[in-house]
Amino acid sequence: MTVTKEQIVTWLEETAVVLNENKEYLTELDSPIGDADHGINMTRGFNKVMEKLPTVADKDIGNILKTTGMTLLSSVGGASGPLYGTFYMRAGMAVMAKEELSNEDLYKMLQAGVDGVVQRGRAVPEDKTMIDAWTPAMSALKAAVEAGDDTVTALEKSVAAAEQGMKDTIPMQARKGRASYLGERSIGHQDPGATSSYLIINALLETVKGV
Amino acid sequence: MKKLINAVDDVVKEQLEGMALAHPDYVKVHFDPTYVYRADAPVEGKVALISGGGSGHEPMHGGFVGYGMLDAACPGEVFTSPTPDQMYEAALAVNGGAGVLFLVKNYTGDVLNFETAAELAYADGIAVQSILIDDDVAVKDSLYTAGRRGVGTTVLAEKIVGAATEARYDLKQCADLARKVNKYGRSMGMALTSCTVPAAGKPTFELGDDEIEIGIGIHGEPGMRREKMKAVDEIVDDMMAEILDDGPYARTVREWDNEHGEWIDVELIDPPFEAGDEIIAFVNSMGGTPVSELYAVYRRVAQICEGRDINIVRNLIGPYITSLEMQGFSITLLKADEEILKFWDAPVNTPGLRWGV
Ligand SMILES: Nc1ncnc2c1ncn2[C@@H]1O[C@H](COP(=O)(O)OP(=O)(O)OP(=O)(O)O)[C@@H](O)[C@H]1O
Ligand SMILES: [Mg+2]
Predict the structure, then answer these.
(1) ipTM value of the model?
(2) Are B179 and B211 contained in the same domain?
(3) Is there a contact between A177 and A20 (Cβ–Cβ < 8 Å)?
(4) How many CB atoms lie within 10 A of CB B335?
(5) CB 3.0-4.6 Å disulfide test: which of A20, A116, B227, B230 passes with A86?
(6) Interval B27-58: pLDDT, tens
(7) Residue B186 CA to chain centroid, in angstroms?
(8) Active-site residue numbers of B?
(9) CA distance B100 to B330
(10) Which ligand is nearest to the CA of A194?
């Protein structure tokens, strides 16, 4: 089974919808341990991506994702702007010129994106960041792809792991970003970036399931 | 919320338009992407000094664009870091052929966006260096946090390094000087009241009528501790003790290696203040505190320094790095050697800081 270019476009559209639906929620999560802007930042970025998408929708997957990354880079700001911007740019570079993705391609693409986030932000697991959603999501996806699962099953496993990873940020003490200044007071709150990352992976699953 | 604004979304844009109208001899403002730059930029053969960060700290940074200070400033939304395209295009606009130095306050958002911009500028063949300002002693721990925040020393660094660019220091010399100013500078802030980000519409944090927050940054970050209101001398005593008794501060920061085109880890240690030091003392209003009260602060600062045999050789008093309408103040002490003093005294001609011209 493969993921088509049309599905990648739908994924991005679906991501914009879901982030807009969760704008207040993400901003609320960012209040006790941040500066209450994560939902505002993410929707500002993805609404810009929606404006740009029609101009590149006929290009290959790599170019579509690269444009998405560039757009986020110049519109999100904050810590998450360069991180998500890097994510989509690196993901795009990993699948340049492709019109459809095998499960291996899909894994390689997402892993390249996550590697970019780690390089830029230098977070390690348990720093209470988006990496805590991505790390388990990628391990689960890798295992599923290697086991020969179909795309939906593989993504289902990955999303379940991302959701668990997101929830696991609640008891963590933040060591990166704005939340780190709170020290122990950051414990007991779910990380907004891990939450938006979960929503992004889940949007991919929903897209692949839906078509 | 009572504020002198039109629409919340237009706050930064309209403020910059006003600035461009008020100071056409000094600055121009470019929109989409947004940056403020010297009216006479690019200055041929001079290192271009660029800073930026969230808006709401005026006059920093836009007010410090002009002769002897910044070549460009990149303002983000209120309390939100700007984006790499702003910094990158500002760099293209003001590069006079001698390279660009980014002065970056240590906030994760600012750091990551400036890092991306440095890579973009480098890819375009512009020589670039990036120096971090991390001087807020209210942050004790550098291992399990994002490190000390960049506050008051930023203003002093922009002045001193800006003067060095006018003296035609090359890029490496400018970067070394900026690193030294950061190494010698320490700051501490406090708040009497909160402040309201226009887009949020309500105060960033709640503070009781009889409460003060000690150790805040410049965005209403949570401080070190909350206390009952007390006499200004007692407040200053506490803050000066935090600054003067702060031990060596060691941490690893990332700097751009322009030769190899990669980020490298640099180990830095800031030495503590010592008896006999000559310093520049900077008493800054968070926006809502009147200058009269700043002088009450300065009085105590001067007394304490005298008691410790620390010699204040220059001072700066006023609202220079603010947090919107917040009442409160910060103290920055900068150990000043001959080179730092020479560039501090050099002429500066910007909307926000002006002498010797
Ligand atoms: N170094 C990092 N690596 C990975 N993720 C990070 C890092 N620092 C912060 N984050 C993520 O960014 C999220 C916050 O993003 P947000 O859009 O709110 O930016 P911000 O930190 O408020 O930026 P700013 O301070 O400039 O407003 C956090 O929840 C966390 O998941
Ligand atoms: Mg935030």
Answers:
(1) 0.91
(2) no
(3) no
(4) 21
(5) A116
(6) 999 999 999 999 999 999 999 999 999 999 99
(7) 12
(8) 57, 219
(9) 29
(10) 1
Over the Cα atoms of chain B, what is R_g?
Answer: 19
Give all strands (DSSP E) within B239-353, no chain letters.
Answer: 249-257, 262-270, 278-285, 311-318, 328-335, 348-349
Q: Residue B289: give the domain boundaries.
A: 188-244+274-335
Instruction: At A180, list the tokens.
Output: 């780190």
Q: How many CB pairs under 8 A join A and B?
A: 79
B70 and B179 housed in the same domain: yes
Please indicate, yes or no, whether residues B154 and B205 belong to a single structural domain of this protein.
no
Place of tokens 């008020």: B22
Distance CA B89, CA B37 (A): 11
Find chain A residues with C-beta within 8 A of B80's C-beta. Answer: 35, 37, 41, 77-78
Name the residue facing A79 among B84, B108, B199 (closest C-beta).
B108
pLDDT in tens, B128-168: 999 999 999 999 877 788 999 999 999 999 999 999 999 99
Contact A178, A136 (CB under 8 A): no
Amino acid identity for residue B338 in this structure:
E
Place of tokens 């110049």: A74
What's the structural domain count of chain A?
1
Within 10 A of B21 (CB to CB), how many other CB atoms are there?
9
Coil/strand/helix, residue B328: strand
Cα–Cα distance, B312 to B302 (Å, whole number): 7
Domain that holds residue A111: 3-209
Residue A1 has pLDDT above 80, yes or no: no
Q: Tell me the pairing of strands A100-101 and A3-4.
A: antiparallel
Q: Are residues B301 and B347 in the same domain?
A: no
Residue A211 has pLDDT above 70, yes or no: no
Residue B212: HSE in the Cβ half-sphere, 13 Å Cα cutoff: 20
Q: What predicted TM-score, i.e. pTM, was given to this entire model?
A: 0.94
CATH number at residue B351: 3.40.50.10440
Burial of B177 by CB count in 10 Å (0-12 exposed, 13-18 middle, 19+ buried)? Answer: buried
Q: From ligand 2's centre to the CA of A29, what distance in Å?
A: 9
